[in-house]
Specification:
There is one protein chain. It is globular and about 65 Å long. The chain starts with a helix and ends with a strand. It contains 10 helices and 15 strands. Strand 9, helix 5 and strand 10 form a beta-alpha-beta unit. The chain is α/β, with parallel strands linked by helices and 336 residues long. Strands 3, 4, 5, 6, 7, 14 and 15 form a 7-stranded mixed beta sheet that branches. 30% of the residues lie in helices and 26% in strands. The longest helix has 17 residues.
């Protein structure tokens, strides 16, 4: 009780300035950094002084521009992979306090600060001190892995080996699965090999990939296939790679319209097709908590995958790297 009382009586965290800086996406491929008055949290909110934010592939359409987006975006958007330190707490908030390091569901994180509801945040344990931890995408990987229901001895194909695919390879290997990594990029396949994928298959020709994996699996194909690209061709390829009564898990974000899919194969093989995207915030938060446990136990090591860092002023460059994916690129972080 003495410790608890001491914590509660700590003076408020000093604010370095009453100005905060944020990125505004003015138009497709055009970002600017603006200064504004530092927002104050509501009675039931907290303010997070952000240490950084991941750059997510799901943001590529809004970065490049599509007919259904309106510009300029709200400040800090589309950043949604933030982490940082609480520096202001609303008067009704009891579950969190200033100076606590957190990650979670925040949606304007290409900025120095963001406002969040305490139920949408997860406290970061001490072992993650001084380490970047964009909880939202790592939590997504844990939720997808849970929905995949991978068991020891399963053959799992991961189609698309970017940040998400490489996390899932690690998790599948920890579960005792045999993993086939399928990717267009040679560097991604190299990274998959470092994470002990059993076979590396270049995604260069539809029928060659099918024949390759058919041979690797003695004609049975895979008990689980996780599609991580969000593209139509790899989705149909993934159907072909899934064995009879197998599960096809859609982890890629198919946000740009309709898809023509190989329903004949899907039906004939009795494949369960699972969309592993969560929209319940509580499940998101559970995934983030499970991700922290996975990192702590050694089942997951995301840190080597944070290959590029940029400042707020370099946001355009960060997204250019995300789209172009030069050799050596896996995941970019915008660091404050």
């Amino acid at each position: 009780m003495r410790i608890s009382n001491t914590i509660q009586e700590m003076p408020p965290m000093p604010s370095e300035t009453n100005i905060y800086r944020s990125v505004t996406l003015e138009a497709p491929k055009k970002a600017s950094v603006k200064e504004s008055a530092l927002p104050e949290p509501g009675d039931d909110e907290v303010r997070v002084k952000l240490e950084g934010s991941g750059v997510c592939a799901s943001s590529i359409p809004v970065w490049e521009g599509r007919d259904w987006f309106d510009y300029p975006l709200s400040t800090g958007n589309p950043g949604h992979e933030g982490w940082g330190v609480i520096d202001a707490v609303g008067k009704n908030v009891k579950s969190l306090r200033e100076r606590q390091r957190v990650t979670g569901l925040m949606y304007n994180t290409h900025a120095t600060h963001d406002i969040a509801h305490p139920d949408m945040l997860v406290k970061l344990p001490d072992f993650l001190d001084n380490k970047p931890f964009p909880g939202e995408p790592i939590g997504c990987a844990l939720n997808i892995f849970t929905r995949s229901n991978i068991t020891k001895g399963d053959t799992v194909a991961v189609v698309g080996c970017g940040f998400l695919g490489l996390l899932l390879i690690q998790l599948a290997k920890t579960q005792g699965a045999k993993v086939i990594a399928v990717s267009k990029r040679k560097y991604s396949l190299h990274a998959a090999g470092l994470y002990e994928a059993d076979h590396l298959v270049e995604m260069d020709d539809h029928y060659r990939v099918i024949e390759n994996i058919k041979e690797l699996t003695d004609g049975k194909f895979c008990e689980r296939v996780i599609e991580c690209t969000g593209k139509e061709w790899p989705l149909n390829l993934s159907i072909q790679l899934t064995g009879i009564s197998g599960k096809l898990i859609i982890a890629g974000f198919h946000q740009d319209g309709m898809r023509n899919i190989d329903l004949q194969t899907l039906n004939w093989r009795g494949i369960d097709m699972i969309s592993a995207h969560e929209r319940n915030p509580k499940r998101y938060i559970k995934g983030i908590k499970n991700a922290i446990i996975a990192v702590q136990t050694g089942a997951l090591n995301p840190f080597p995958l944070f290959t590029h860092t940029f400042s707020l002023e370099e946001t355009e460059k960060a997204y250019q790297n995300l789209v172009q994916r030069p050799d050596g690129f896996i995941k970019a972080l915008i660091i404050n």
